[in-house]
């Protein structure tokens, strides 16, 4: 029996994937569910001309049922690694190989079916597996041997033609090999069952003891959360604002399945009878995931469920979940409705971080029964942090998404595939749309009804397509017969070229929208062309209504004309309109967007004109930005609202090919929004946008002297500096290029006219940026020389009150040079001054102000004031949660630093809480690998000190593996100190993430005149104590800190 470790599942999956590839079964790797296996088997049967497919499925069905529990157990044991579904790929590869030998097909299927039927019933062991290393080891042996058996059969079936195959297969050597592998599988099964039964007996025994113990009052839970709903709130309540869809058809089976999943007890129990004990979400709180293609009806099915079962719930909350910000806005709304917050504002700058946590606590603690609907989930990273950790009632969650594997299915997490409507349901939906606002429209006769069914067939039963066509037919008064003939002609070419169900589906979508778009009025077509380039989920009507009277857009000549244009598009089910809030906003389904873009690709001039008009609309809504890169807090909310539209325009211009050649104005906007983007922590998106802007300049043959060249280099350098050592070369290269470009631009200004103060500031900005870059590289002396030169210029231009941002930069950089030289007092004073100037320039909560305060807190730490540093960092964290939210690199860096400070002070419980939060796997993609790895290293020490040696070693080894890789890749920036392992991790991260080691620490150690030691609970120094050493705390420095607390 192999020794179980957390890495063994990953290694097993890697080996088995490679085995499939080696056996030329690459397609099998993509089979990730039983439904996909069934579809693949159907295709295989058709390919080989086998007419008895249902018989084959029935033949294998008993064994496949055992295989389903096997796959579920693999998912549970491997902690829901998506590759747990490899079992379906192996089955597909086996059956496909077996079909090559149809003469002996039944015998081939028996080879695997016999083994499947011998499988244990794994369903009863799902919760035991993750907690038992012994069971894991036996179970991995089953998995390993079973997959080997499948591969062995596949290889043998591939070796020989059908004639004589059976004789070959059961020849002496192959037969012995198969028998030996099969016996290994069976032996592993027996060992697993014995170990599982033993574990069950142990659980029953200790469970009875535990129940007896928990009856003792000493072990009753304390500090139980209370339902803090504001008094006067009248239940039931709901945030569902969509009106009933009178066209809704079918889905009765799906609705019943959702009901059985979410509310198994019927009738619904009264609040008094609901269980009061808390339970872990995902174990006892049912969650239903509605998954399917865009336009398939996921949202409408969820909405219909809330309508039919609203009496079962005290509260129904509907949240648009396509982005983290929209989820946060939904939680802020809920907080307001429940009276849990002083404001129901949902602007990004409001207290959304607090609202999320407050609502989660309410969901976990309330006695009310609630239903939480997350509509159109794009990423489980965005969703995971918003789910309540536990519940006390029979509440539930519904998720709608186009994505697969948002959460793995389990006993309480059920995924329901929303599929095409049947031809009868599709015909019913079509007639419902044809009814309009009048009485129900029924078929004139059987022939017409059959035509409607045929239309449903041609459209693939897609609700979005059927409602679109129905809206078109209702408005044009086309007969069902005439439209069916037209649709047949329109689809004919695509039917010939289509391959497979999925591709055919895409084609039918294109056909549907081609027809729907063809007959639109000029106004309606012009508007939908613009909407195709914008963020589809939230298009403020003010983007258009603020420009009523515009001579460039015909449909905006008057408000009635604009309203009529929207009415036409809504009647044809092409756009949606939400009037529940202010401002009103439009929505357009992504599938409709893509269809419009596909249609526009046929007329490049019209496509480019639509891009230009959409861009002009958004550009006119954007604020003017500072020409000298000053932070502008008043522009923050406007950028937050319209930047998504700019990013969508950028993406829509490159699909479909050929790409639209972007304009210089577009490059200017991408450059203008760069300061907002890096202040908001959106580093990756900013780099992509700026590189697009650079590409535009290249396409237009723009020289180095153009102001945008310097701007783009400058902003890429600033953004790259926030990412860590992997971008350090790029950062410094861009800063050099920015200096060169800005000098060329300034020279041109000198030749053409008078040089203004702002021109001078722009020239020197790139010098101060270089000083920031040198701080990152540890060259404090050179950074100091450059920033002092900048300071001389600042004094010529004005006082700190005149140009606070320039003096902020000076104080920020010089504080690092002071600390590196061992001048604690000066370092703390200048970092405090930079924060004060940040408040003057940008306000108390702006990210730039927080960055200065973070530096101030880091200097307090280096001065030995760990508790003072912690207090300051906790304040910074609170502000960052409010302004940029949890899923943001600045917030995660704060959590990591605070966790390290708590560990330094011996408060290991609080330290672990912070590290668990920032190291959540769903947040890994939010911040750079370097900072994430340092947090892992720091957390490993917390685990070690808490006695969790195995987990500590795991995190430590993972961190060291990344460190070693970076040492090989970036030797010019990283240096190992054998006496201080934390040092190289510090060198990997950017300066704005905070440091615990380095030149600043070394200077302070040598200048220390008194010793202040700290020990862990076990008496050994933590990595931070080893790194920082002992510092004197001068009374004057402590006095400065007191002043700073009063200032902030």
Note down, in words, how this protein is organized.
The protein has 43 helices and eleven strands. It is mainly alpha-helical and 1048 residues long. It starts with 6 loop residues before the first helix and ends with a helix. A hairpin with a 6-residue loop joins strand 10 (576-578) and strand 11. Helix 4 (86-98) packs parallel to helix 6 and helix 36 runs parallel beside helix 38. The strands form three sheets. It has a six-stranded parallel beta sheet, sandwiched between helices. It comes from Karstenula rhodostoma CBS 690.94. Pfam families: DUF7779, NB-ARC. Residues 288-431 form the NB-ARC domain.
The tally of strands reads 11
Strand content: under 5%
Number of helices: 43
Helix content: 55-70%
Oligomer: single chain
Q: What Rg do the Cα atoms give? A: 32 Å
Largest sheet: 6 strands, parallel
Mean pLDDT: 79
Q: Per the principal axes of the C-alpha atoms, what is the gross shape?
A: globular
Structural class: mainly alpha
Q: In order across it, which strands form the biggest sheet?
A: 1-4-5-7-3-8
Give start-end ranges of low-pLDDT stretches. Answer: 161-172, 205-228, 266-283, 343-350, 490-508, 1002-1038, 1040-1047
Distance, first to last CA = 61 Å
Domain NB-ARC: 288-431
Organism: Karstenula rhodostoma CBS 690.94
InterPro entries: DUF7779, NB-ARC, P-loop_NTPase, TPR-like_helical_dom_sf
GO molecular function: ADP binding
């Amino acid at each position: 029996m192999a020794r179980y470790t957390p890495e063994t599942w990953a290694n097993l999956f890697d080996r088995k994937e490679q085995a499939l590839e080696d056996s030329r079964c690459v397609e099998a790797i993509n089979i990730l569910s039983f439904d996909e296996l069934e579809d693949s088997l159907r295709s295989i049967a058709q390919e080989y001309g086998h007419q008895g497919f249902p018989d084959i499925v029935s033949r294998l069905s008993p064994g496949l049922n055992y295989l389903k529990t096997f796959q579920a157990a693999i998912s549970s044991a491997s902690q829901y690694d998506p590759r747990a579904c490899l079992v379906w790929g192996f089955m597909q590869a086996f059956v496909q190989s077996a079909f090559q030998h149809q003469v002996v097909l039944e015998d081939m299927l028996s080879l695997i079916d016999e083994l499947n039927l011998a499988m244990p019933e794994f369903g009863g062991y799902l919760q035991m597996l993750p907690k038992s290393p012994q069971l894991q080891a036996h179970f991995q042996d089953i998995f390993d041997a079973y997959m080997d058996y499948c591969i062995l059969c596949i290889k043998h079936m591939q070796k020989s033609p059908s004639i004589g195959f059976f004789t070959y297969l059961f020849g002496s050597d192959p037969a012995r090999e198969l028998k030996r592998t099969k016996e290994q599988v069976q032996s592993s099964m027996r060992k697993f069952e014995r170990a599982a039964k033993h574990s069950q007996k142990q659980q029953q025994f200790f469970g009875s003891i535990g129940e007896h113990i928990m009856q003792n009052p000493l072990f009753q839970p304390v500090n139980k959360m209370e339902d803090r709903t504001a008094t006067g709130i009248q239940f039931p309540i709901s945030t569902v604002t969509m009106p009933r869809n009178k066209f809704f058809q079918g889905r009765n089976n799906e609705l019943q399945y959702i009901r059985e999943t979410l509310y198994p007890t019927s009738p619904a129990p009264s609040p008094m009878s609901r269980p009061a004990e808390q339970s872990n979400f995902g174990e006892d709180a049912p969650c239903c995931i509605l998954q399917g293609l865009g336009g398939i009806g996921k949202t409408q099915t969820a909405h219909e469920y809330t309508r039919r079962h609203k009496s079962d719930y005290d509260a129904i909350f509907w949240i648009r979940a396509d982005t983290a910000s929209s989820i946060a806005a939904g939680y802020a709304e809920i907080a307001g409705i429940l009276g849990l917050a002083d404001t129901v504002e949902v602007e990004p700058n409001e207290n959304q971080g607090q609202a999320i946590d407050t609502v989660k606590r309410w969901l976990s603690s309330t006695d009310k029964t609630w239903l939480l609907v997350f509509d159109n989930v794009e990423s489980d990273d965005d969703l995971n942090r918003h789910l309540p950790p536990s519940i006390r009632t029979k509440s539930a969650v519904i998720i709608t998404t186009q994505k697969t594997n948002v959460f793995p299915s389990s006993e309480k997490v059920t995924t329901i595939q929303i599929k095409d409507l049947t031809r009868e349901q599709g015909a019913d939906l079509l007639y419902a749309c044809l009814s309009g606002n009048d009485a129900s429209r029924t078929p004139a006769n059987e022939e017409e009804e059959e035509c409607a069914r045929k239309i449903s067939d041609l459209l693939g039963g897609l609700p979005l397509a059927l409602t679109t066509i129905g809206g078109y037919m209702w408005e044009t008064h086309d007969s069902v017969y005439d439209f069916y003939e037209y649709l047949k002609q329109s689809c004919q070419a695509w039917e010939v070229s289509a391959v497979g169900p999925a591709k055919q589906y895409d084609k039918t979508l294109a056909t549907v929208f081609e027809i729907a778009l063809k007959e639109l009025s000029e106004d309606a077509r012009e508007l939908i062309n613009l909407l195709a380039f914008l963020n589809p989920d939230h298009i403020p009507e003010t983007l258009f209504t603020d420009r009523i009277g515009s001579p460039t857009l015909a449909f905006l000549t008057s408000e009635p004309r604009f309203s009529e244009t929207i009415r036409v598009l809504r009647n044809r089910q092409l756009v949606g309109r939400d009037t529940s809030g202010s401002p009103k906003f439009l929505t357009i389904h992504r599938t409709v967007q893509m269809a419009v873009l596909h249609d526009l690709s046929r007329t490049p001039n019209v496509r480019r004109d639509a891009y230009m008009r959409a861009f002009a609309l958004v550009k006119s809504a954007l604020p003017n930005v500072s020409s000298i890169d000053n932070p502008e807090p008043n522009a923050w909310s406007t950028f937050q609202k319209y930047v998504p539209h700019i990013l969508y325009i950028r993406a829509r211009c490159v699909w479909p090919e050929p790409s639209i050649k972007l304009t210089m104005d577009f490059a200017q906007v991408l450059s203008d929004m760069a300061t907002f983007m890096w202040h908001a922590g959106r580093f990756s998106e900013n780099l992509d946008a700026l590189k697009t802007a650079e590409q535009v300049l290249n396409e237009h043959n723009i020289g180095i002297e153009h102001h945008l060249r310097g701007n783009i280099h400058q902003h890429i350098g600033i953004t790259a500096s926030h990412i860590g050592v992997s971008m350090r070369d790029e950062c410094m290269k861009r800063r050099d290029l920015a200096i060169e470009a800005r000098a060329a631009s300034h020279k041109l200004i000198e030749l053409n006219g008078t040089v203004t103060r702002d021109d001078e500031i722009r020239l020197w900005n790139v010098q101060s940026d270089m000083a920031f870059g040198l701080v990152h590289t540890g060259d404090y002396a050179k950074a100091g020389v450059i920033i002092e030169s900048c300071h001389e210029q600042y004094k010529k231009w004005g006082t700190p009150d005149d140009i606070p941002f320039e003096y902020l930069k000076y104080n920020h950089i010089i504080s690092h040079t002071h600390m590196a030289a061992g001048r604690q007092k000066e370092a703390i004073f200048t970092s405090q001054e930079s924060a004060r100037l940040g408040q003057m320039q940008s306000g108390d909560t702006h990210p730039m102000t927080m960055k200065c305060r973070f530096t101030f807190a880091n200097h307090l730490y280096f001065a030995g004031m760990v508790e003072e540093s912690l207090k300051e960092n906790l304040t910074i964290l609170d502000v960052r949660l409010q302004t940029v939210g949890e899923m943001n690199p600045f917030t995660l860096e704060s959590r990591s630093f605070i966790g390290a400070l708590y560990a330094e002070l011996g408060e290991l419980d609080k330290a672990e809480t912070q590290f668990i939060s920032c190291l959540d796997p769903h947040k890994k993609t939010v911040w750079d690998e370097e900072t994430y790895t340092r947090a892992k290293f720091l957390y490993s020490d917390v685990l070690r000190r808490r006695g969790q040696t195995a987990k500590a070693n795991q995190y430590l080894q993972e961190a060291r593996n990344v460190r070693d890789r970076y040492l090989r890749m970036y030797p010019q920036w990283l240096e190992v100190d054998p006496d201080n392992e934390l040092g190289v991790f510090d060198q990997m991260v950017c300066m704005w993430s905070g440091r615990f080691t380095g030149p600043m620490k070394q200077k302070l150690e040598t200048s220390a005149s008194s010793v202040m030691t700290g020990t862990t609970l076990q008496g050994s120094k933590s990595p931070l104590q080893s790194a920082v050493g002992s510092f004197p705390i001068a009374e004057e420095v402590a006095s400065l800190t007191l002043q700073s607390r009063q200032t902030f």
